[in-house]
Design brief:
The structure holds 2 protein chains of 2 kinds. In chain A, 70% of the residues lie in helices and 7% in strands. Chain A is an alpha+beta fold. Helix content of chain B is 32%, strand content 26%. Classes of the chains: A alpha+beta, B alpha/beta.
């Protein structure tokens, strides 16, 4: 059996490959308008998908920038002795979902506060002798979404006086970013399925006109694989051709938007994903999705015609 | 060569087309299959080239049991038989030559072999001079000769024909029969379903009559036996 299969593969001669290619492109030419319709369907889909993906990836990028800044501050009771701090830090580090713990003395805390307030901070300089702050541990969680849960655990510890993590705002931020991600994913999936449906219908039409040909091929002993190849190539080519325009549009468009954002909003903390590698990656993905949509569409429609 | 043992075929809609067929056809035989319309003739023929799978029983052709053969082995089985239909089943966009060559291309023969064999069979059916024409430029008889050429181009030991003369005028039908005789004389087994009384009674061969899905008559040098 194994030997036979090997022979089958090597027997796929160059001549046969050429024949399949010729057949595929002949069929596309013969069904010119339908091919055009399929390519357009893929083009529209991929255009929307690529725009959504670019937005989605950027939202994700910005959200994770913000999320990375999310930290928990656990202030230590004034009554606690500083020689126990090492043990406390260990205890915090051993909590579940905690990534890292950093100790910040009240002096460092005040310095940071003064610095972050700029000129106005100078007013607090006088407090240096009589620091109102407490020593604190700064805790980063594995996932930003774990912040609230971890903070609650930390608050239960005896040496902790108070926990701060931007209560309320953090939850809201996560709600927004999660919603954006979910909506984006649903939209992208919906669009991809629409395009698959359109391609499979187009190829179904081209197959109906070639039904007789398939029937005769089967009667003279062509294998299903042999019959399927031209359709496979045709679907793949239609899908890939449909990806070309979206790639051009997204490459040119994103570069333009990126430049504008960088010039006008460069100073703000918002930072878009750089053009490379984003655009090459997106382009590859578009080619891949286009090809897969095309192949899937054509193979599902050819399948039922093979049962003769 | 061809052997059917207790073959039954019931279609999903409940039609019982074959009800226990037993038949043995020797290598090199020429067999007519006759019977009224709807008696099971077509199903009998379709089971032979495995378009239909019998509900029960075995059909052994060239040593392969078609009732047991797996879906992906069907192409291998079909390469060992030629099939001819009433409606020719030619591809309209291909020339005579290409239509015949098609049968060899799909089994990935080399161009050299294809050229030789196609010209050889076109010579046999006397269409060598029309190799470059398209099917719609030919008469019905010529089209059927192309389809016969296609069916024998890969030298199958068996040729199965389903009413090959059904669409042709009597004179042309005789021409077609000459070709079948020629093929049979070269040692190929021929099984032909037909309604043509003249032919069956003139070119006398073995006759199998099917009625109600059973073989009701099987004679070595038979006649048509029906009045239509």
């Amino acid at each position: 059996m194994y030997v036979m299969r090997r022979k089958g593969i090597t027997a796929m001669k160059i001549r046969t490959i050429k024949r399949h290619l010729v057949e595929a492109f002949k069929s596309m030419g013969r069904n010119g308008w339908m091919s055009f319709a399929s390519i357009s369907a893929v083009t529209v889909t991929l255009l929307l998908v690529s725009v959504f993906l670019a937005i989605l990836l950027n939202i994700n990028h910005i959200a994770s920038q913000i999320e990375d800044d999310v930290q928990i501050r656990a202030y230590i009771e004034r009554t606690e002795k500083s020689e126990n701090y090492d043990a406390y830090q260990k205890q915090l580090e051993n909590l579940e979902k905690v990534k890292s713990v950093k100790y910040q003395s009240k002096e460092e805390g005040l310095d940071e506060l003064i610095e972050s307030l700029g000129d106005e901070g100078e007013a607090f300089s006088s407090l240096k002798d009589e620091n109102p702050l407490r020593d604190a541990f700064i805790i980063y969680t594995d996932k930003p979404q774990d912040t609230a849960a971890v903070a609650k655990e930390v608050d239960k510890l005896k040496f902790v006086n108070k926990v701060e993590y931007g209560q309320g705002t953090v939850e809201k931020l996560f709600k927004v970013t999660d919603a954006a991600r979910n909506v984006g994913i649903v939209l992208v999936l919906g669009l991809v399925f629409t395009a698959m449906f359109l391609i499979s219908n187009t190829i179904k039409l081209t197959i109906v006109t070639r039904r007789r040909e398939i029937e005769i091929m089967k009667l003279v002993g062509a294998t299903n694989g042999f019959i399927r190849w031209p359709f496979f190539i045709e679907g793949f080519a239609l899908g890939v051709m449909g990806a070309i325009l979206p790639i051009i549009v997204i490459a040119v468009g994103y570069q333009a938007i990126f430049d504008i954002v960088n010039q006008k909003l460069g100073t703000v903390f918002i930072e878009l994903l750089p053009v490379t590698p984003l655009i090459p990656q997106l382009s590859l993905l578009m080619l891949l999705i286009g090809g897969v949509i095309g192949v899937w569409g054509s193979l599902t429609s050819v399948r039922k015609f093979l049962k003769i | 060569m061809i052997e059917m043992i207790d073959v039954w075929k019931t279609y999903p809609n409940g039609v019982m087309a074959l009800n226990g067929i037993d038949v043995y056809i020797e290598k090199g035989e020429f067999v007519y299959v006759v019977g009224p319309s709807g008696a099971g003739k077509s199903t009998f023929i379709k089971c032979m080239y495995r378009e239909e799978k019998p509900t029960q029983g075995s059909i052994i052709i060239n040593g392969t049991n078609l009732a047991k053969v797996k879906e992906r082995q069907i192409p291998k089985v079909r390469r060992k038989m030629g099939v001819i239909f009433q409606d020719f089943k030619l591809l309209p966009r291909l020339t005579v030559y290409e239509n015949v060559a098609f049968a060899l291309e799909v089994i990935e023969e080399t161009p050299k072999v294809i050229r030789e064999r196609v010209m050889e069979v076109l010579d046999l059916v006397k269409l060598k001079n029309k190799a470059r024409m398209f099917p719609d430029e030919l008469s019905g008889g010529e089209q059927q000769r192309v389809s016969i050429a296609r069916s024998i181009v890969n030298r199958p030991p068996v040729v199965i024909a389903d009413e090959p003369t059904g669409n042709l005028d009597p004179e042309t039908a005789w021409e077609i029969m000459d070709i079948f005789k020629e093929i049979n004389d070269r040692g190929t087994t021929v099984v032909m379903a037909t309604h043509n009384k003249e032919i069956v009674n003139t070119i006398t061969k073995r006759v199998i009559a099917i009625e109600g899905g059973r073989i009701v008559r099987d004679e070595a040098k038979g006649d048509y036996g029906y009045e239509d």
